[in-house]
Amino acid sequence: MAEPDAHHRRRAQGALETRVLGALHEARGPVTAGWVRDHLAAGLAYTTVMTVLGRLLAKNAVTRRREGRSFVWLPAADEAGLAALKMRRVLDGEQDRHAVLASFITALPEGDERLLRALLEPGDD
């Protein structure tokens, strides 16, 4: 029974990472971890926000710089990068990546499928 709990916890952490990134995008500038915590208004502990920011930093999803005695945080990607991170989180949470990707591709509208194929073709930038 430990498996489903671990799976649920991974998804919950990914969802929190997405919410923290969303807050950083809404900030439109560098903010402190305290600002992120207050902005999310989810009753999160400061240490939880710092842990999430640290994980995002290790994944190169955010950057930080020292200002005075603390750090300020910024998203490393634009909104398209945030959407891509959300998509990757969903994919990472599934066991059969091949099946998920195949299902995703076949469910795309024709124009999106053509765009994806063009992006995957070598030599076309």
From TrEMBL:
Pfam families per UniProt: Penicillinase_R
Keywords per UniProt: DNA-binding, Transcription, Transcription regulation
Superkingdom field: Bacteria
SUPFAM superfamilies registered for this protein in UniProt: Winged helix' DNA-binding domain
Single Gene Ontology BP annotation: negative regulation of DNA-templated transcription
InterPro entries: BlaI_family (IPR005650), WH-like_DNA-bd_sf (IPR036388), WH_DNA-bd_sf (IPR036390)
Family from the record: Belongs to the BlaI transcriptional regulatory family.
Annotated protein name in UniProt: CopY family transcriptional regulator
The organism of origin for this protein: Streptomyces malaysiense
